[in-house]
What we know:
Elements: E1 4-5, E2 15-23, E3 29-36, E4 42-46, E5 52-58, E6 64-66, H1 74-79, E7 86-88, E8 94-95, E9 99-102, E10 105-108, E11 117-118, E12 131-135, E13 140-149, E14 160-169, E15 173-182, E16 186-187, E17 191-193, E18 210-211, E19 217-219, E20 232-233, E21 245-246, H2 256-261, E22 265-269, E23 273-277, E24 301-305, E25 320-321, E26 327-334
Parallel strand pairs: 1-2
Antiparallel strand pairs: 2-3, 3-4, 4-5, 5-6, 7-17, 8-11, 9-10, 12-13, 13-14, 14-15, 15-26, 16-25, 18-21, 19-20, 19-22, 22-23, 23-24
The chain binds beta-D-glucopyranose.
Residues 82-83, 93, 118-119, 225, 265, 275, 277, 281, 303 line the site of beta-D-glucopyranose.
Amino acid sequence: MTTLAPIGATPQPGSTTKKSFGKTPDGQPVDLYVLTNKSGAEASITNYGGAVVSLKVPDRTGKLADVVLGYDTADGYVNDKSYFGALVGRYGNRIAHAQFVLDGKTYTLAKNNGENTLHGGVKGFNKALWTAKILPAKDGQSLELSYLSKDGEEGFPGNLKVSVIYTLTDTNALRIVYSATTDKKTVLNLTSHGYFNLAGQGSGDILGHLLTIQADKFTPVDAALIPTGELRDVAGTPFDFRKPTAIGVRIDQDDEQLKLGGGYDHNYVLRPGVQFYTGNFLDGKTPGKGGVAYLRRNAFCLETQHYPDSPNQPKFPSVVLNPGEHYHTITTYKFSVEK
Ligand code: BGC
């Protein structure tokens, strides 16, 4: 059962509480929702950008660690350029030359990454104030965030109604359910930009973390990190994570694709895809939680998504959403320990 505890109360297992997190630049209040599951794990989520601010899960001894990078106040998220924990839309990753064609009409988008559009444009969903509602959930604590992205926002067509339901389950999974509808044909690719460090945020790099990605192929990129259109076999390359492999063992190999990304910054081909990003652009300049400087490769991201630049790549799976259709995807990050 979800109960709304009084502001300022210490979170109790099996509860969701709400507290103030600061203000937007135009003075609107920003909230922080603390979801505590029955086993004591805790996810804090703000309605500013829908960001997961902290995620405290137990290690093998039962000790909780906060495994995501973030900021202590709303201001951090207002100024953020790394998309820490944020909801990303309308289009996760890049759209080349900030444009695409739908039914013969060219749509021009906001450019925010050289000539290209990254993560929805200058004011993506990560900079929106979402409407939050605590929902009853059978298997944990749930928070629904809704946002109406108006026709033409950042250049995208259609009034798009988006709902994201976060659930921290009682078995220590963070489930994210994305839904959307549009009143005009559009393109859509929603994701969540969590930066994970399973040793705890602020504890250094993630090069020793073991990673498995069950993908046979990835999408190589050009110098602007736009896919070339090729689906390349991971076999025999440093991109092969089909067996558990430490993230850092091959990251600095003399490989053209690793050089272009400054490390891993590539989409793996699943159904549909996942962007594996090793925080190569983190430079420690903006202090994070507790004043920690997050440096290069101090976290990794696994952003479930469609392939980058799909609106311009006819061979990639379609990202078109039509009026009357219901966009619906689910991503679950499950935390467990080996004893
Ligand atoms: C992209 C990176 C980008 C990062 C932060 C990732 O999803 O692939 O190239 O630097 O997000 O914006």
